[in-house]
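We modelled each protein-ligand pair independently. The example shown here corresponds to the zinc ion entry; the chain sequence is given first, followed by the ligand as SMILES.
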Amino acid sequence: MTESTESTESTESTESTESTESTESTESTEITEAAEPTGSVKPAREKAPKVSKEIVYSLSRASRCSGCDRKLVVGEIVKLEKAEEDREALCRVCSKLDDLELIGKGNAKITRLATKYSTRSYVVMKWSEVWKTYERLGILAEPRAIDKAEAEAQVKLANREKKP
Ligand SMILES: [Zn+2]
């Protein structure tokens, strides 16, 4: 009686140990596999924001530049400082955007190419009174990059800004 009980116990303990080991090894394998895709996602995410994708705004109401005190009219592209409640706007000259040109939305191909070729590009947002939200007006890119984009896409933008 005593012997049989011992043998049963030993058999059980051996089995349980084996099953525990196999479970552990399976788990660790799963974790390693799961960790790999996560690791490969990271560098891809770092690549995505290529250059500075800053946002600038088209003024929805007349304002004054907080840099040079120039009067700003509705529709002017400005850079808004962090304190949005104060509406601290910087004109295009003060925010060093005067060498960039606006491409209105609806020119997806040109926008994509110009963003690619421009070392600096900004998304231009405009406040919509109707929707009570900011909507994308277009982008600011270097004229040189827009020229290149036009040539490559074989499209001429109808309403390019005239530079003095
Ligand atoms: Zn200014």
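Strands lie at 53-58, 63-64, 71-72, 77-80, 89-90, 101-104, 121-128, 133-141.
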